[in-house]
TrEMBL record:
GO MF entry, a single one: DNA-binding transcription factor activity
GO cellular component: cytosol
Keywords of the record: DNA-binding
Source species: Piscinibacter gummiphilus
Key word Cell membrane present: no
Descriptive protein name: Uncharacterized protein
Record bears the keyword DNA-binding: yes
């Protein structure tokens, strides 16, 4: 699997690889993620363009991050990922743009993701008991409203908030322009 593969070409392979790593059938993953077997099959065959929320549910069920389903398996450090090599993925439902900034790294590594959320759009991620991560969100441009487990943050450029994957959190752009922000995550090693 080449480092420069697009997220669209990697997603089907990575979902299948992670499901197989867990030694799960399509039915088992469907039950754990709350996603239909037919949809998972379509994703693995590259016949469906899944949303960020759906991919996050699949990843959480398998104990891996959304970003890990969009990039090549992690390699050992040191590593460099130039801006032109950073995979970019667009959510087909919201136009949310996700750029994987971090080079691939080791288990339990820190991950940096650059996000662009269009004006008037929102994405909501379900809580995950199996994917343990600590996330920090740094707003670079625009405005962003975060709801995390009943706590609401209204971010302005330069503001930083901490989230926890075991709570539902929603990102909403109520502003007139694109909200640009970084998500910095630390993941515990994956387990099925």
């Amino acid at each position: 699997m080449a480092e420069h593969d697009s997220p669209e070409s990697l997603i089907p392979r990575r979902v299948r690889e992670e499901r197989q790593r867990c030694r799960w059938t399509l039915e088992q993953l469907a039950e754990r993620a709350g996603v239909s077997r037919a949809m998972i099959s379509k994703i693995e065959r590259g016949e469906s363009s899944p949303t960020a929320v759906l991919l996050a549910r699949l990843g959480a069920a398998m104990g891996v991050s959304l970003s890990s389903l969009m990039s090549a398996p992690r390699a050992a450090a040191p590593a460099l990922r130039r801006v032109g090599e950073q995979p970019v993925w667009v959510d087909p439902e919201t136009g949310y743009v996700r750029r994987l900034v971090s080079p691939t790294g080791g288990e339990g590594d820190v991950e940096v993701v650059a996000i662009e959320l269009p004006a008037g759009k929102a994405v909501t991620f379900s809580p995950s008991a199996s994917l343990r991560s600590d996330e920090q969100v740094l707003l670079l441009e625009g405005v962003l409203v975060l709801d995390s487990g009943g706590v609401r943050f209204e971010l302005r450029p330069g503001d930083c908030a901490r989230l926890d994957a075991d709570r539902e959190h929603a990102f909403r752009n109520d502003g007139p322009a694109v909200a640009r922000y970084l998500v910095v995550k630390r993941h515990d090693p994956a387990s099925c």
